[in-house]
Automatic annotation (TrEMBL), chain A:
L-histidine binds at residues 85-87, 135, 139, 288, 292-293. GO terms for cellular component: cytoplasm. GO terms for biological process: histidyl-tRNA aminoacylation. This is Class II Histidinyl-tRNA synthetase (HisRS)-like catalytic core domain-containing protein. GO terms for molecular function: catalytic activity, acting on a protein; histidine-tRNA ligase activity; transferase activity. It comes from Alicyclobacillus ferrooxydans. InterPro entries: aa-tRNA-synth_II/BPL/LPL, HisRS-like_core, HisRS/HisZ.
UniProtKB/TrEMBL annotation, chain B:
Gene3D superfamilies: Periplasmic binding protein-like II. Transmembrane segments: none annotated. Keywords: Amino-acid biosynthesis, ATP-binding, Cytoplasm, Glycosyltransferase, Histidine biosynthesis, Nucleotide-binding, Transferase. Its EC number is 2.4.2.17. Belongs to the ATP phosphoribosyltransferase family. Short subfamily. Catalyzes the condensation of ATP and 5-phosphoribose 1-diphosphate to form N'-(5'-phosphoribosyl)-ATP (PR-ATP). Has a crucial role in the pathway because the rate of histidine biosynthesis seems to be controlled primarily by regulation of HisG enzymatic activity. This is ATP phosphoribosyltransferase. GO terms for molecular function: ATP binding; ATP phosphoribosyltransferase activity. The gene is hisG. InterPro entries: ATP_PRibTrfase_cat, ATP_PRibTrfase_CS, ATP_PRibTrfase_HisG, ATP_PRibTrfase_HisG_short.
Amino acid sequence: MSIDVVRKWVDRPLGMQDLFPQQAKFRRKVESVLLEEFDEHGFEMVSCGAFEYVDTLLRGRAAAEAEAWVRVFDTLGRTVALRPEMTPSIARMAAPVLSGGNKEIKWCYAERVYHRTDDPASLSWVSGRAAESTQVGVEWIGPSSHEVDAKLLLMCQSGLKRLGLKDWQMVVSHAGFASAFLSASGIESAVVDDLLAMLARGDYVGFRRIVDGQEDTELASGDVLLSVLSKLDPFSSSRLTDLIHVSWKDASLGKQVEHYWDSLVQFAAQLKSMGLANQLTFDLTLTRDISYYTGIVFEVFANGVGAPVALGGRYDGLLASFGAPAPAVGFTYEVERLMAALSEIEWTTQPTNDGETGASE
Amino acid sequence: MLTIALAKGRTADDVMPLWTSALLPKPEGMDESRSLVFHASTDGLAGHADGVTGKSAGNAGNADGRSGFGESEDEAFRFLLAKPADVPTYVSFGVADIGIVGKDVVLESGREVYELLDLKKAECRLCVAGRPEHRGKPAHRVATKYPRLADQYFRSRGEAVEIIPLGGSIELAAVIGLADRIFDLVQTGSTLKANGLVIFDEVMDVSARLVANRSSYRTKRRLIDEISARLGESITAQAGV
């Protein structure tokens, strides 16, 4: 084919990706394997439209988060957006069902989600934010305990194993810990927000600079705060006050931090008892850029893919903003990133006999 | 294996002595060769101590009792010499696990990488410069390698300008009158001076940073933390001279 000929081919919009037969089949395969896993654990599949009201999506989170969404006006002049993720839609669908007397909802989904991006799809799929990507995930609404959270992590890990992915690392954190810890250490709340944004971006140099720029000379240095946060390991099952020399500037916040810590230690013990401690580490600097999380948060990383292949957490406050207060926890796999990680280990070339594929051992 | 992307040129030249003084395995034969990929020498750390520049005695002490790097398969180091602007790309895609590149490049690229450490090397300033006769007059056209940062800067000053993205020799744009401002990195200022240009404003100080791929940082945490800690100690030791 010569490329210097003018052709009447038509371009794709920015961020849109085509899948040719082999890849399309591969994606469907990954989705099915993960959905089978969910099905075995009693999660039922639901689906809904790609557009939600911006107001719906914004419940329980900061207005600035809408910046990354594809927003348009509907015919009646209301702002709608292509869903950036499935959790708000699931919460919207679940609230009436909960009000109707259901105590527990276990739903799963496999849907496309959307973000604004300036990068061509071929670049942003594997790292960073793709304009359109596929999420296969679950939401477990109703029960709340360390055991439930641990079961969710177990399911997430066994899904990865079912796909045959080996080199992955699960990193667990707590949505409230870093914030409470920094506030209790005497940092003003506005600054704490900036610091959390730095942690979410992974800008540790910026984190140290902001802390060290504070006028309060009694503050610990940025380096100290950062290394304390990243080294605290709930698997050690020690009391927080035995691990670090603490003199909280704000005693009630300090109590809060210690409360979070005790709960993390219990959770770590639960994980250990369920044999989940391999390939799992705690890092309390891990911060998600979604504000509705209230409890544990986690991300899973795989070799060769620059962004998490699975991510989720506990959001006990979100359902209340949809009119049916209930605790909930959920996570999603990022299918295209999994595809990238899997194609590194030549998953595609393995013989495929339907239904049986992927089971690793 | 750990892959390290180094920004070719001044960043790599300036950081390599620090890298060596931190007693980290260093790329073999990087000076003589024109190749782009280097493997770390495997002759153990003792061999490197000879090459330590400056404060060798103090730094050697830091490494006491530590196991060497680059001996086992998992800890082999591979170095990529890349164009600075490509380093964040390599790192964000995970082609390289960690990278060493200027803050200016990290900011301009907007790529998602973890920024672990300020290496305090290859220090320079991002400046706005131009011909003396344009001083104090409103800016119209700005030539730069940093269109994103230049746009942020002029917007923050409430100035609407036209940005002219160029690949190099930015000074030329001001000299021949293509632009009335240039927005570029200034090290000593001698290139500006030689071309009859003056600095109007210093926007920010930049220096080399240790960056990491998000996934590598999680899966190879121990190794990357150790590198970061050793470099940190060397920086402190050198600052204390």
